[in-house]
Amino acid sequence: MSSRKIIRGGLVITASDEIHADVLIEDGRIAALAASGTPAAEAWTAEQVIDATGKYVIPGGVDAHTHMELPFGGTFASDTFETGTRAAAWGGTTTIVDFAVQSVGHTLREGLDAWHAKAEGTCAIDYGFHMIVSDVNQDTLKEMDLLVEEGVTSFKQFMAYPGVFYSDDGQILRAMQRSADNGGLIMMHAENGIAIDVLVEQALARGETDPRYHGEVRKALLEAEATHRAIRLAQVAGAPLYVVHVSAMEAVAELARARDEGLNVFGETCPQYLFLSTDNLAEPDFEGAKYVCSTPLRPKEHQAKLWQGLRTNDLQVVSTDHCPFCFVGQKELGRGDFSKIPNGLPGVENRMDLLHQAVVEGRISRRRWIEIACATPARMFGMYPKKGTITPGADADVVIYDPHAEQTLSAETHHMNVDYSAYEGRRLTGRVETVLSRGELVITEREYTGRAGHGVYTPRSTCQYLN
Q1: What's the number of CA atoms in the CB half-sphere (13 Å) around residue 336?
Q2: What digits encode the pLDDT tens for the residues 294-345?
Q3: Tell me: the pLDDT tens digits for 122-160?
Q4: For residues 185, 186, 187 and 193, what is the CA-based torsion angle, rounded to 10 degrees?
Q5: Sign, Cα dihedral of 77, 78, 80, 83
Q6: Phi, psi at residue 48, to the nearest 5°?
Q7: Which of 26, 50, 268, 364 suits a disulfide with 317, CB 3.0-4.6 Å?
């Protein structure tokens, strides 16, 4: 039995085009587009017609950086794959790529299997995995080849968190050399964790224990230094590099320089760095703990350089690094010692709306909005054009977006499993109205109509900017 839906009368926006068109969906895929009101479009019939007059019709968002159920700092991220993917759908995101974790002393396969077990049968939307590589050895390197073959084509390494996820330069170089051969993409958390640990120890010894010191010890120069080092190691290895959660203008400058040299270096930033700052970290009565993440929030003047990077394509992707911890009982673990505050912010539900606000304010164009939030992450991580666009043959991951609706972000109304909003009280123009995932209605006119288990695992090809 074929199932057909038609979305009529909306402005279809992709990374490359804007056109008033009707969209025909058949068996979970985009079957055709036709200009609204033309005989071709009028001739279509379907069991269900969705009226998108006056609305945008956009591809579902692709959030390529989430951490559902991540163990960290003696606790776990508060969103499960079920609650986190449902919240993502509410925010117009229809695909996430989460991070499976290799623990030191264990294989990549064990880590990947554990994450498959967490996610399978629980997700409201489709999902894929990156692999965190914490223990580089000859066996791990061989496993990387096997994972690429089965659709886990990106590997994250950390220059931070000694004793947990940290890799030294030799381990990083070996993994990069391997990815140069197998087509994988190394994703780098670029902060000099060895130096940061010294500064943390010294700050605590001086009695500097409040959340704001988290930002002060994780210095922008140590992000820039690590970014530079990662770029040069990748250059030596002949490998591409993707730097995650870029927050400092000095790190953007390193990426821009590398790209000007013609290197295959890519950069991601996150909404928190575009919209929040060290002013939030300094909020009194330990409220600043809500904003502790790594890389940390920076002083406001960094924001302009991040927006500039997005306009000039020195930064290509906006992901969330969604890693929520409740204020009560989790963030509070760091009262009296900022280094014990679990690092991470909630945001998977807010990304598409915050970036649309940037369109409203003239910071980016509508097409650039779709490019950095949908199309480029899909291409970067081997899912395009199945994901990230509206074109015949693509998965029918489609969002009907009301560009005129007004909303106020709040923990009272969000759907993430966390007791605060990083954007509490922020007023935005634009809101998700209806969301389809592979042609199935997940959000229907602001009501959740999806189900746990609809979302399926999505194997990925290698980075499409390198083919």
Answers
A1: 1
A2: 999 999 999 999 999 999 999 999 999 999 999 999 999 999 999 999 999 9
A3: 999 999 999 999 999 999 999 999 999 999 999 999 999
A4: 180
A5: negative
A6: -140, 130
A7: 268
